[in-house]
Amino acid sequence: MTEQVDRRTFARKAVAAIGAAISAVFGIPAAATMLDPALRSKRARWTPVGTLSTLEEAQPQRVTYEVAVGWEKREVPIYLIRTGQDVLALSAKCTHAGCRVRYADKTDQFKCPCHGGIFSSTGEVVVGPPSRPLDRLETRVTKGRVEVRV
Fold first, then answer.
1. Is the whole-model pTM more than 0.85?
2. Over the stretch 35-57, which tens digit does the pLDDT of each residue have?
3. Which of 2.102.10.10, 3.40.50.150, 3.40.50.12780, 3.30.1330.10 would CATH assign to domain 46-149?
4. Fewest 10 Å CB contacts: which of 33, 42, 76, 140?
5. In what order do the strands lie in the sheet with 118-119?
């Protein structure tokens, strides 16, 4: 036995089906675009940040590298410190509140302008609210080029 559907019920179901189809056509690609960065594997890669010959011995030098954040590219500052053939890379972000630290030649220290944190030339906490040293990035030197793992 077949059930008879009135016009109002048919119209309601047809509008719902069309709305679902439109949502699927536009919504699934939009959701995939938004979730892609979160679902993409977080593999580290080596990024060139300078050459060994341009770094002075035991003198921190500020350099930047680019990272993609969504569809934007942002520059991330770090400090490179050469000791012979080895290079130490320190984040320029204070471990207390995330402010950018600056290197002071006169005192041979990194200083945070936000809350007065002071770090040694190797990134260790000297004074202030930071509870841990500046973050270190893994480095390598390949054919005279300095690379950091990001």
1. no
2. 766 666 566 789 999 999 999 99
3. 2.102.10.10
4. 42
5. 102-104, 109-111, 118-119, 125-127
Determine whether 118 is exposed, middle or buried from the number of CB atoms within 10 Å of its CB (0-12, 13-18, 19+). middle
What beta strand segments (E) does 70-144 contain?
Answer: 72-83, 86-91, 102-104, 109-111, 118-119, 125-127, 136-137, 139-142
Task: State the amino acid at position 140 in one-letter form.
Answer: R
Q: Is 90 exceeded by the pLDDT of residue 9?
A: no
| pLDDT given for residue 1 in this prediction | 55
Write the DSSP assignment of 42-87 as a string of letters: ----EEEEEEGGGSPBT--EEEEEEEEETTEEEEEEEEEEEETTEE
Q: pLDDT-derived band of residue 24, with 50, 70 and 90 as boundaries?
A: confident
How many other C-beta atoms lie within 10 A of the C-beta of residue 62? 13
Q: How far apart are CA 5 and CA 139, in angstroms?
A: 71
List phi, psi (to 5°) of 55: -90, 130
